[in-house]
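Reopening this ticket.

The earlier resolution said the output was attached, but the attachment link was broken on my side. Pasting everything inline this time so it's all in one place.
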Amino acid sequence: MKTKKNLSILLSGQLISQVGDRFYLLALSYWILDSTGSATLMGLVLFATIFPETVIGLAAGAFVDKYNRKWIIVGTDFLRGLIVLFLAAMVWLDSLSITMIIAAQVLLSINAAFFNPAIPAVIPQIVEEENLTRANSLTQLVRGSSTVLGPVLGGLSVVAFGYFFVFLFNALSFLISAFFELFLTLPAAEKREKSQSLLMDIKEGLEFIANKRTLIILIISIAIIHFFVGSFQTITPVLALELTGNGAKNLGYLQTAYGVGMVAISSLFGLAGLLNKREVPALFGSVFLIGSVNLVIGVLMIAGFNQPTYHLPLFFLYGGFLITAVTSFRTLVQLQVPNAFAGRVFGVAFSIGDVSLPLAMLTYGFLLDRFSIGSLLSISGICLMICCLFLLRLFRVKEAPVAQQV
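Inline output:
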């Protein structure tokens, strides 16, 4: 049934589990550095967190389209809770090892491969079409809130209560989220035919994407956004060190401004519905403006404007523009794709995005040793703006014949 209650249930569960996950990721990073002091092992854990989801994304999306999405969401949250609960027990017994961490991250990544495409696939089932943008904005509001609250509270919790508490908190957050999701009500009509093999479902999904050019352009757009977001995340800690004052404090201020921008803009769109029917200009406009922010920060650094106060408003805008782009992308896909294909399409989009992030981190990690932050950000900004204008033109050209037929 398409009721506000269903959306409230979904958002409540998401808020609890995402704040817990932010706690956990911060504590996990501290634990690895405290226990091993190895950046290589940290990279290995990051790889284990991302790679499995990337590899099985399309198959997981087909599974989401084939079976009951409610139970996929409930089951994956429940399993993630048990996995992290096991890690918490190992911390309590002082038996946690890096091998256990890597194995757990692989299992968590596999669960995420099923969970992540299920959420945007379910949203059109529980809200009316005219409310899709608002619902997507509210899911991004949850994401932004966890981005602001999670690292701050997580860091304080590690210091005050230790790793066991933080791991246990995250485990319970997943289990509580799963409990909330038990009360979701999806339309009975969404039961799917199971006679066709999963491989045929995957093939069908790939053919659907290949035959819809505007969808390909949207997926390429989100891949480019992920790449440049990954580059920005890689550059930000180094930028914080180059700004005047304490580098760690600068990083905290910049990340807070970024998170507050996400919360503020997603709240505005979620409450006022300003994006409705404006998703295409909002997507490509916000991507262009993200490139502009990169360029402005780069120019400021080249010109020697190293005071954090110059950069905080730009990080606020960056967070807001990013949320606008993600919200618009999700709504456009939901509007263009029959719900029976939503899992597979979002599975592909998330897989490509997951590849783009580490690729960007690797690329810009290499470039940071050879070029200044100012030049890297300036060039990145210009490249992103050019890509955005090119993709918008392609999208408009491919969209036009469809509009004429209608």
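Reporter confirms the inline version is readable. The radius of gyration is 21 Å. Residues 401-406 have pLDDT under 50 and may be disordered.
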